Amino acid sequence: MFKLSDEGLKYVKTELTRYEAKQSAIIRCLYRAQDENNGWVSQEVIQHLSEVMEIPAAQIEEVATFYTMFNKTPVGKNHIQVCVTLTCGMLGGRELCDSMMKEAGCKKEGEVSPDGLFTFSKVECLGSCDTAPMLQVNRDSYIENLNTEKGVELVRNLRSKARGH
Amino acid sequence: MAEIKYLSEHYSKPEFKTLDGYKKHGGYEQLARALKMEPQKIIDEVKASGLRGRGGAGFATGVKWGFLPNNGEPRYLLCNADESEPGTFKDRLMMERAPHQLIEGMLISAFAIKSKKAYIYIRGEYMGPAAILEKAIAEAKAAGLIGKNILGSGFDCDLDLYLGAGAYICGEETGMISSLEGLKGQPKLKPPFPAVQGYLRKPTIVNNVETLAAVVPIIRDGAAGYRKYGTEKSAGTKLFSISGNVNKPGTYEVPLGYKLMDLINIECGGLKPGRKLKAVVPGGSSAPVITAEECEKATLDYECLAQMGTMLGSGAIIVIDDSNCMVDVLSTISHFYHHESCGQCTPCREGTGWMERIIHGIVHGHGNEGDLDLLIKIADNMKGRTICALSDAAALPVLSFVTKFRSEFEYFIREKKSQVRGGQIYAQLHH
Ligand SMILES: Cc1cc2nc3c(=O)[nH]c(=O)nc-3n(C[C@H](O)[C@H](O)[C@H](O)COP(=O)(O)O)c2cc1C
Ligand code: SF4
């Protein structure tokens, strides 16, 4: 069964007091739980949050399924989200994603690579159109001004980093 | 006229991000001044400045503030930092380079509208800017600029950051309010407008990042000073985010009324060698596209672009040169709107999906002769019939692309390949 860490529990308790309405804490708490659950939101995560937050599971599930940044299926260690909308689409974002997927051994979007290291998603506008094409690795970094070669190299670098260089 | 650093004067200085650095350049002096003014006087000044909302619709800011009812209920100020309209990235620059300018603008605005609680709603993907803002908010709290009895004025105002999680519809003001309430980010029917019944059913003002930041120089220079820039109906300067086929994409501040082609050729260094301008989307993906010929006459203000049947929107300019296939470009736009429709209204939910399927059919070589007229009919039926404007936003690009570049679509349907790039576009090469 999924359970938040002690620190995670403390985080949730603080978030619950942060906004005018306690339900407003759902998004942040889902992020936290997702991070502690290897990058995805399972039914167990929703159940657990529901108990901790004292909010009906249905309401948490509704939020989790509405927003695209919550993953409803397992993802690889590096969830790579490639922007493919308008400018990134025009300047090669889709080709970039395909070639990186090939390098990582992913046959299709959303699939975890055989080594467990990668999942790719083609996502809608990430708000960095001047540095197109670009992508995001997990939630913490934008990687910009890419082309196919740089993308493939990024996959290789992430792989060697995961294998301890 | 040329690029002008009015709002963005100090954006190149790294210290401007910190409270000390911001103060060195006059930061929070306008807040101190504003707190000594009558709130109504601030609203009047903002009205007189002619400031119009920079989030897309261009509604007069001071006028909107005036819609708040005087019923003694608590009021909320929400800063819209969702910035999810494809092509738009100017608010990100502001938040990254000048978080305190936004906070100062929000505190002045909150004081003017008598709000004691303000939120910045930022899209979940903007983790970088969110971290910068959280740091700035903590600094401002520690310095007594946010919280109780701000600068000894007796005014209390709390300010917090709220993180979204990847939904374009949360940029729509009532969608944003739903999201902030801990629900799915689905828009609500208007009226009642948020100014009357918004967050937690209380009077709420929603303004864009750039709008709120602009309140700072309006207090400093007065309405007349602000009006030194821009045109009669489009006062001031504006940040434009330009992307696509130009040599120097980025965010540029110019006075409203600036010539579109000057921005492309002077600030952005023109197009790549040997390329010709084909079209421009002037105000974010929902703004109707204009042809190269129309671009020659376009000035960047609300009235000129409206007259041309398009809009200034959020100030996101996407430059499209002759290496692009308009059918392919429209297919990415249509995919976006279908993906982001919240599904509440039938014309939007079904219409966006139907249009996307037809355009994808054309792209994959399965187009039919009647497709274009059908697209126009569907788009026409989606306009003005739904809870929010996303449906219109999805219909407008389809109408303008298909009408203005019809022959390119017809060629694609007939020949089952694109007119450009030797006929090979992404979909045909890869699927
Ligand atoms: C589908 C949709 C998406 C929108 N996205 C944004 C956005 O990302 N940022 C924004 O400031 N306004 C956005 N708006 C406009 C807001 O609803 C609202 O008009 C605006 O935030 C008001 O602020 P302003 O008057 O300062 O422009 C959007 C509107 C619609 C219909
Ligand atoms: S128009 Fe579309 S996005 Fe807006 S409320 Fe209706 S279904 Fe949702």
Which consecutive residue ranges of chain A, at least 5 long each, have pLDDT under 50? Answer: none
Which hetero ligands occur in this complex? flavin mononucleotide, iron/sulfur cluster
Number of strands of chain B: 11
Give, in order, the helices and strands of chain B: HHHHEHHEHEHEHEEEHEEHEHEHHHHHH
Taking Cα atoms only, what radius of gyration of chain B do you get, to the nearest Å?
A: 22 Å
Oligomer: heterodimer
| Discrete helix count of chain A | 7
Kindly describe this structure:
The complex is a heterodimer of chains A (165) and B (431). Chain A is α+β, with helices and mostly antiparallel strands. Chain A has 7 helices and 4 strands; from the N terminus they run ααααβααβββα. Chain A has a 4-stranded mixed sheet with strand order 2-1-3-4, covered by helices on one side. In chain A, helix 1 (6-16) packs antiparallel against helix 2 (26-36), helix 2 packs across helix 3 and helix 6 (93-104) packs parallel to helix 7. The longest helix of chain A has 15 residues, at 148-162. Chain A starts with 5 loop residues before the first helix and ends with a helix. Chain B is of the alpha/beta class and 431 residues long. Chain B has 18 helices and 11 strands. In chain B, strands 6-5-11-8-9 form a 5-stranded mixed sheet. A 4-stranded parallel sheet of chain B has the order 3-2-1-4, with helices on both faces. A two-stranded antiparallel sheet of chain B has the order 7-10. Chain B is globular, with a radius of gyration of 22 Å. The model of chain B has no long low-confidence stretch (mean pLDDT 97). The interface between A and B is large, with 45 and 56 residues. Iron/sulfur cluster is lined by residues 169, 187, 341-345, 348-349, 386-388, 390-391 of chain B.
